[in-house]
Amino acid sequence: MDAVRTIEAEVREPIRRSGLDPARDPKAVQRLVKDAVADYDQRSMHGGMPVLPDVTEAEKAMWDTVAGLGPLQQYFKIQPSRRSGSRDG
User: Fold this and answer.
1) FRET pair for 81, CA 20 to 30 Å: which of 15, 17, 18, 55?
2) pTM > 0.85: yes or no
């Protein structure tokens, strides 16, 4: 089982137990994701588990997995406008 699958199981269980809805309470779910990734990262440093190459990317991937569309989520993100200032008229 790779790191993301391990973390996913560790995030989904408390979401199920608590009845959290990522759409209704994204901050609580984001806290669970952040805590689970940090906990996994600490445990992986002691060996026996795959190390996360990028904790921030792991948090994003986990959020997309439990609250979004998984790997497809990247195609549905709204990109910020490159224009500065407001458009009048």
Assistant:
1) 55
2) no
